[in-house]
Every structure is written in C-alpha cells, then in structure tokens.
Design brief:
Radius of gyration: 30 Å
Oligomer: single chain
Number of helices: 34
Distance between the termini: 42 Å
Bound molecules: heme C
Helix content: 40-55%
Largest sheet: 3 strands, mixed
Strand order of the largest sheet: 1-19-8
Length: 819
Amino acid sequence: MSKVGCALAALVGCCLATAAFGETYVPGQQVEKDFRGFVEPFLTTHCNDCHGKDFPEADLTLEGLGPVDEVNADVWTRVWAQVALKEMPPKEEEQPEVIARLQFADWIVAQLKGVLKDKGGFEAQLDPNKGNFVDHDLLFGPLPEGIQLRPTSSPARIWRVTPQEHITRLNELINTEPGFDPQKPGLRTHGDAVPTNHGGELKLYFGVDRITKWQGGTVAYATAVKSVPAVLSSARAHGLENYPDFYSVNSAEATQILGMADDILRYMAHGPLSIAEPYQISDDTKAVMQKWDGDIRGLPTSLVYNTQVVRPLTPVKDLLEAEEVDSTQLQAAVDYVFQAVTFRPPTKQESQAYVQIAQQSIDKLGQEDGAILGLSAIFLDRDALFRPELATSGKPDEHGRVMLQDWELGMAVNHALRYIQPDETLQSAIVEGRLRTKEDVRREVERMLADDSIRKPRVLQFFRDYFDYDLGGYICKDAKALGDTGAGGGNAHYSAMFDATASTDRLIELILAEDQDVLKRLLTTEKIVATPGDKVYYGTRRTQPDIAASLKQEKEALAAWLEEHPNGKAADFKKRNKTNHKVEVAELSGPKIFARVSRRSFGAGSMKPERILATAPEGERLGILTQPSWLVSHSDAMDNHAIRRGRWIRERLLGGGIPDVPITVDAMLPDEPNNTLRERMRVTRESYCRTCHEKMDPLGLPFEMFNHAGLHRTTELGQPVDTSGEIIDSGDPNLDGKVDNAIDLIKKLSESERVEQVFVRHAFRFWMGRNETLNDAPVLQAADQAYQESGGSMKALLTSLLTSDAFLYRTRDETDAPQ
Ligand code: HEC
Ligand code: HEC
C-alpha cells in the first residue's frame, strides 16, 4: 500500500469512528447531506405519520414531497420555519436529535438559496424578524456534544446610511446646532439626530434659525420655508430597520440627491440669499412687512430673515465668492465637502478626480454653476451613501478573518453611536494608528460613552427599533373610534402622538443616564415624561354613570356661578372651565425637564420641548409598554391590536418566533361593533389558527386595560373589561401561567433572566447589523455577563458588544462567512 493509501485509510477510519459516536456539526459550514440519504428519512421518521398521503394534518402532505424545487419552495419554506422553531414535530412527539434538526434546517436554507437564485433569492433567514429562529437555549445554555463553534466574525459588507443619518449628515453643512448644555440635557443639541417635524416628516430645513417673522399660521409657515425631504427610502416600519444589504440607492434617488446637493451648496455659499430676495434679509422686520403685497401666505417671500450669520462658513463660500477660480480654493472646497459627506479625508486620487470634475464643469458652465455641479458629484460618492466594511487591507488570521482597522474601524466605532463625523480624539486615533486593537476600541468606546456632550443618537434609535414606540403618530385613526376613546380628536391626537414619542425618548435617556438595571427599569418605571395634554392620555376613560355624574357636577357648578354672576353667560363659563367629561384626567406633577423636538417656529402647531417628569397614576401603568406612545403604536384605526402587542412580547421579550401568516389565511376579525376585541378574536382560537395565535393573543389581551388611544379603562361596552391573559411555552417555566392584567404580566417578565438575554440578542442584531448564529454564542454570553455583572449597565453591554469578534472581524470570502 502506498503512503497516500495508508493516510486515506486512516482518515476514513477516523471519520467512521466519529460517525459512530455521533457527528460533529459546525454552524455555518455547508451541510454535506443529501435528500435520499438524510432528508427523506428525516421526514419519514418524524413527519409522515401525520403528514402522509391520507388525511394529512393541516392538509399538508410531506410524503413524496421530493427535493427542493421552484414549485415546492413555499412548502419547504414552511417546513423550515416549523422545524427551526421547534414547532414540528409537535412537543408530545419524539423529537429529532439537536444536530439532526440543525442540519435539516440548514440543508433546506442552502437548497432554497440555490433553487431561488434567479427568482430573487432566499434571504428569509437573514431577516431580523427571523433572528429568533436560532434556538435560545443553544445560545445561552450548554451545547450538546458534537457541536463545534468557530471563532465568529461578520461578512465583509457595505451599509447604506439611513434616511435620518443622511439628513443629519447634510444638516451639518447648513445649520449650526447649539452646543450641549448640561443644565438642559434634554434639548436638541449638536450631534443629535435631526428629528421629524410636528407632522412626523423628516426634512432638512434651510435658514429656519434666522426667520423672525412670517405671514399666516403654521401651515403657511411650513409651506413657505425652504426644506427638502429625506431622499433615501426605508421600507420597514417595525423592528430593526437597518441591516447592510437591505437597501441600495436607485437612480431616481441619485437624481434627487443631486438636486439636494445643489440647494445645500448654494446655501453654504450665500446663506438665505440663495433662497430669498435681498430685501427679506433685514433686522428691520417692519420694513420688510411693508413690502408684503397682499396675501402671500405660503410663498418664500412671506418670510423675514435676520442678518446674523449662523451657518458654518466653509471653503465652499470662499470658492464661490472669489473673483475668479483659484485652484487652491477649489481643492480646499473639494476636500472640505468630501470629508463632510464621507467623514474621512479624500485620498490623493479621490481629491484629484473631484477637482478635475469640478474644473471641467467650471470651464463649461462658469464659476458658480460649474463649481456647484462639480461639487455635487461628491454627494453621490459611494462613501457618502454607504459605509464600507470591506477589510481589504490586513492579513487574515488562521480562521480566515480580518480585523477592521484605521478608517474602517474608526467609522464602525463612530457609527455605532453617532451620525456625525468622528470627534477629534477619535480622528487622531485613526490617523495616528492608534485604532487597531481591541483595547484601542475599548478605550475610544468607553471615552465616548462617558461623555454626555458627545451625543449618541444611535443608542436611542436602538430603543426605538426594539420597542417600536415611535409609530403612534402614523397610525391613522377612524374619527369616530378616536372620539370614543376620550382623547382629543383630529390633528391634536396626531401631534400628541409625536409629542409622546419625544417624551418616551426622553424617559429612555433619563434611565440610560442612570445606567442601572436599564431593561428592567424601562419595563417597570412609574415615571413618565409628560406634556400638559398627557393629563388626558394618562387619564381613565369614564364609565357612563361617571360621565353622567360629571355632567351633573358641571351643571351644579354652572348654576352656582350664575347665581354669583347674574349677567354671566353659560358659554363663557364652559369655555373657561373646559371639561372633558369622558375622561377622569390624571393628576400629573413633577420637576420641569426638556425633550428633544424639531426646531421652534411652526407657529401654534410646533412641538414644545418643555415637559415635566411625573409619576403615572398608581397601579395603572408600568413602564414603556403601558405608555400611550407604545400602546398607540400597537393599535389600528379602530381598536387595540392585541395580536401585534402579543407578537411583540413573544418575539422581543420571550425570544420566540411565530411562522409567517399562511397565505391561505384571511387574517381578518369579524366586523362586530357591539362585541369586544377579545370576543371578535374568537376566530383565532379555532384549532388551526390557535397553534400560532395562542403564542401571541394571550400576551396582548392583558393590555385591554387601555383603549386604543392609550387611556386607561375599567369597562368596555358597558361591561367590566376583561384583562386576563396567559404566558405559555415561554421557555422559562417560572414564567408560564395566567396573568391578571398588563401590570401583572410586565412585572413577571421583568424578573426573567431569559427576557434579559433576549434583549441582549436584539442589541447584538442592531449593532452587528445581522442575525446571530450559534457561532456568536460566546459573544452573546459575554455581553449578557457584562450586563449582569455591571448591574444592568447599557454602557457595559455596549462596550462588550463593540469589542467582540463579531464587531471587529470580517470575513471576505462569502463561502466562508457564517450565515
Ligand atoms: C403528531 C402529528 C404531527 C407530526 C408528527 C408532525 N406534524 Fe406538522 N402539523 C401537525 C398538525 C396537527 C398541524 C396543524 C397545526 C397545529 O395544530 O399545530 C401541523 C402543521 C404543520 C405545518 C404548518 C402547515 C402550514 O399550512 O403551514 C408544517 C409546515 C408542518 N406541520 C410540518 C411538519 C414537519 C416538517 C414535521 C416533521 C418534522 C411535522 N410537521 C410533524 C401534526 C404533526
Ligand atoms: C403560521 C402561523 C399562523 C397561523 C396558522 C394563523 N396566523 Fe394569524 N397571524 C399570524 C401572525 C404572525 C400574525 C401577526 C402579523 C402582524 O404582526 O401584524 C397574524 C395576524 C393575524 C391577524 C391580525 C391581522 C392584522 O394585521 O390586523 C388576524 C385577524 C389573524 N392573524 C387571524 C388568523 C386566523 C383567523 C387564522 C386561522 C384561520 C390564523 N390567523 C392563523 C400567524 C398565524
């Protein structure tokens, strides 16, 4: 026998031996299994008793299904979901071995990816909403023998910036935001994200910090002011909104960005003169008003700007105001704009290329238009719209992973917390080669986390994505249904909801500032940040007899007043003593604080930063999930959305997963205005629907103690409201059982270690930009440990995540990357 033969024999022998003792499974490695030898027998053993050819359960025949192809891809997708989530085979049946289950699920995903390549591909497993498909107990518990983890890393990739990030970046070019004021830490500050306006729109505004007068009201003002809306698209409303590869930039967006760049560059050069007539810029408001010719509401000429210069003055101004084009000035403007929109200095080649483009367009179009067109091109640079993490330089380690370094690493660290350019200290660390090791990253992250003046809007964005409390203003309410809740009608409700988002933002920041037991406090705080209008939203919807009593009381008070004021008018009295008879308003008091809202001066419609830090009515509220912002975000036009609330708890707190709504299901509740939501939801308790819905609905129904505008209530349709619910199949036996109401439910959940771990999983997803795999188990466990040992510090959790291999390392070769 030759030497090679011997070696082969030994190898075969060794493999047979391991096979006999059970197999080794390496997560992410291609599964060397085939349909006939492994998958079909798996189905025969575990599934076909129930899903055979005759009388199959759920009308689903798996016997004879055959390998994955385009036609049966949908069935295989459902099989994958059921098996990965450990729903099938049913709990009471004999379960497949852990490794066999993992291999079966991996095999399906690999096959679906191959088969659907030309049909848009298969990426469901990468979706953040499917993150929980990875078994929680395997991530945090002991691993069964035979599973061998690989040192983790993330794939090399580019991230498109989010709309908010993009606007915030561009805002830096034309507006000077106020510096951090430790006395008023809630106010909007340089480095915070540009907030949506009072109508929930995300826009970049020009010159609003100089407008001193306008004709007309809020609407006229909003139309007259120069603004450009966010261009980049964002299709997701719920959950994590931004993974790499979710989004690209299409040609229509590119065209719009060029238009935006034109506006921005002209404003950078000329200030309000680029958007107004010279006479409108004056400190003599009256003189300008005299020029107002009749009704010009909503027109750009209906505004008066003061003469202060508040925008940043930059080399772009110098270039455009110069007598003639000077090549040093051109270069300076190019470099300035490049760094402002990409956050790093251009390389020599980049700089030269853009100078050349600008010079050519100046030659063609003249100094002003040419320079502007030339500089506009920089706004479309890849790095102005995407953040690369390609790890093209650097040597792979023995596992094929490359650590990010210098600019890519610095940008990753910066982006983990911020939307604007790296601060000076971080920039010098990058440039001086002091951002290359895990310790370097820890130093910078800890420094930035400790400094309140370094604003960190990404942290707040995580909580928005995680809790989904920022959607309330976008839920269109049926006017009558809204009226019935006792909340203010029409536009007042929508502005109240945008205010509610800002209030919850602020509350989260206050809890983050203390940085102790962060998740638990978020879930169980009795504190609320409140506007005057919140007296109603935190109030209790009155029952019919209470309304009658309130009306009677008003009548008596009026009678008494008329006795004292014989000439008084009843209408005057009512106007002065406005009573919302439908609501027992909450008594809210507490110290004054500020919330971050859009800029002043949307007239009467503008949001006001002044708030109070109050305590919610006792026994009625507990934490974020009972705030109107969250409740309304999880409601619909007519009613509460108990299913979605329950789903939120199942996924974001318990770490469970629900397979997608089958396309054959008509997901509609009966339209029965005289029945409660709970009653109408009886259809989801039918046997087929129940398997999915029993995991969601009983977790959402305890929130029936609130109506769909978020007011507390004790009755519904004249009957005592039923707020009972149940936790089943949570994965934590201490949790399972009945609950009386939302408060009871939340208290239980907030005590659970599992809930805390699920929170860590979501933080991982947000900051790594991908779903966790089994290979990330050590990273998740370290993060969880850091969180626990620090007494629930978000800073400790973040530092752990941002110094993890998953954050620092990239794998360039796609086939090698963990999936
Ligand atoms: C003991 C009987 C039983 C076994 C064994 C069983 N199932 Fe099921 N399966 C059911 C029932 C019953 C339903 C209907 C939903 C429910 O009640 O859980 C169902 C539902 C399903 C569904 C959802 C149907 C749909 O329309 O999307 C899928 C997919 C599925 N099973 C796959 C499997 C797979 C794969 C296996 C083997 C790994 C398996 N089942 C094993 C009883 C079984
Ligand atoms: C395979 C799991 C599954 C099954 C089976 C299922 N559903 Fe659902 N259903 C879901 C999920 C997940 C949602 C949540 C969607 C969301 O987040 O809005 C949902 C939502 C709904 C909604 C709310 C829709 C909305 O957005 O207002 C209704 C109503 C509903 N299902 C009814 C049914 C009925 C009736 C059946 C049985 C005929 C059924 N479902 C079976 C998973 C399922």
